[in-house]
Design brief:
alpha+beta
Length: 347
C-alpha cells in the first residue's frame, strides 16, 4: 500500500472493557498534572489577575445522554468542570466532578452545588497555597459557596441575578445611586466594533446574615445591542481595579460556554454516549480533557505562529491537517525536538 502497512485500532468494545478496569481517580490526575506542569513552566503567568490570582472557571454541563441497556433505560450524566484560565483565550481542564444521578446515601438526585463542594475540597487539597479566584455563574452566589471561599481564602467573581438574591440586588441598586463618584467609563473592542462600557459599583452589600460583598454593574452599548452585566465579588472595588475585574474576570466566565461548544461540536465527543459503563464513561471524558489540553497547546502555542501569514484557519481544520500529515509523511527521527511551546501575545 502507498501509505505502508495497514493501520488498525482496537474496537470500541475492547476499549470500553479496558477503560472500565482503570481507576477514575488515577485517570483524573492526568489533566491536573499536565496543567500543574504548565504552571511550573511559567507558561500561564500572563493570565493571572493582578499578577497574583489564578482564575478558575466553575460550571456544569451535560456529559452524555446515557446508554440504554436491556435492564434499564439510560439516565443523563452531568459533570461540573473547573477550568484554569490561560493566556490567549485558552482554558485548561483542572478537575472534573461527576454528578451521581442517584445519591445512594440520601436516596435523592445529586446537584451542581453538591458536586462543587466536593470539587472545592479536592482543589484545596491539591493546591493548598495557590491564590485562586473562582469565576462562577448565577447559580453560585449562595451561603454555602460564600462560606467555602471564606474558609479556603479564595477570591470570587460571580454573576448576580436579580431573582437569585432579590434583597441584595435591591440594596445594591439603591446604594449604587447614592455613589455618583463610583463610576468608570471606557471603550473596548468587540467582535462587531466599538463598545462603550460604563462600570458602576457599591460596597458592603449584605448577602445573608454572615457576609457582605461588593457588587459591580457593567453596562455596554454597541452598534447592535445594549447589555447589562452584574457581578458580586469579595475583591475591593476601586477605579484602578474595576476594569480588570469586569473584563479579565467577570466577562471571562462566558469562555467556558465556548469551550463546551467546541468539545460538543469540534470532534471531541462531549455529550456522546460512548458506553453504558459508568467507570469507562468517566475515563473517556477525562481522556477527552487531555486531548483538549494538547489541542490548545498545539493550536495556540505552535500553529498560530506557523500559520500567521495565512488567512484565518479554523482550529478543527488545523487538527485535521495535522492528522493527514502524520499519516502521509514519515517522521524523521533525526530532526531536533521542539524546545519550547510558547503562547504569542495577541497583536
Amino acid at each position: 500500500m502507498r501509505l505502508g502497512k495497514r493501520r488498525t485500532v482496537s474496537c470500541s468494545g475492547n476499549t470500553t472493557h479496558h477503560a472500565a478496569r482503570v481507576s477514575v481517580r488515577d485517570v483524573a490526575r492526568i489533566p491536573m498534572l499536565m496543567v500543574r506542569r504548565l504552571m511550573q513552566m511559567r507558561m500561564m503567568e500572563r493570565a493571572r489577575l493582578f499578577d497574583r490570582w489564578w482564575m478558575v472557571i466553575i460550571d456544569g454541563t451535560l456529559q452524555d445522554r446515557g446508554h440504554d441497556t436491556p435492564r434499564k433505560k439510560a439516565r443523563y450524566r452531568y459533570i461540573v468542570e473547573a477550568k484554569l484560565v490561560g493566556p490567549e483565550g485558552t482554558l485548561f481542564s483542572l478537575m472534573t466532578e461527576f454528578m451521581d444521578v442517584r445519591d445512594p446515601v440520601r436516596d435523592k438526585e445529586d446537584c451542581e452545588l453538591n458536586a462543587f463542594r466536593r470539587m472545592a475540597k479536592k482543589l484545596k487539597d491539591e493546591f493548598p497555597h495557590l491564590s485562586i479566584c473562582l469565576l462562577m455563574d448565577g447559580l453560585y452566589p449562595v451561603q454555602s459557596v460564600f462560606d467555602l471561599c471564606a474558609e479556603y481564602g479564595w477570591k470570587f467573581i460571580a454573576t448576580l441575578r436579580e431573582g437569585r438574591q432579590p434583597l441584595s440586588w435591591d440594596e445594591a441598586v439603591q446604594t449604587m445611586a447614592m455613589s455618583p463618584s463610583a463610576v468608570f467609563q471606557s471603550i473596548r473592542k468587540g467582535e462587531e466594533g466599538r463598545i462603550e462600557q460604563t462600570l458602576r459599583w457599591t460596597s458592603d452589600i449584605p448577602f445573608g446574615p454572615n457576609h457582605t460583598f461588593q457588587v459591580l454593574f457593567g453596562g455596554e452599548i454597541s452598534s447592535t445591542a445594549a447589555t447589562l452585566w452584574a457581578w458580586v465579588t469579595n475583591f475591593s472595588l476601586t477605579h484602578e481595579k474595576v476594569h480588570a475585574i469586569a473584563n479579565q474576570g467577570g466577562r471571562k466566565r462566558n469562555a467556558i460556554e465556548t469551550v463546551f461548544n467546541v468539545e460538543k461540536n469540534g470532534g471531541f465527543g462531549l455529550e456522546h454516549a460512548f458506553c453504558a459503563n459508568d467507570t469507562a464513561s468517566q475515563n473517556y471524558h477525562l481522556v477527552m480533557q487531555v486531548a483538549h489540553i494538547l489541542e490548545q497547546l498545539l493550536v495556540n502555542g505552535l500553529f498560530r505562529r506557523l500559520t500567521s501569514a495565512c488567512r484565518k484557519v479554523a482550529d478543527f481544520k488545523l487538527i485535521e491537517l495535522l492528522r493527514i500529515s502524520l499519516v502521509s509523511v514519515r517522521i524523521n527521527l533525526q530532526q531536533p525536538t521542539i524546545g519550547q511551546i510558547r503562547f504569542s501575545p495577541s497583536s
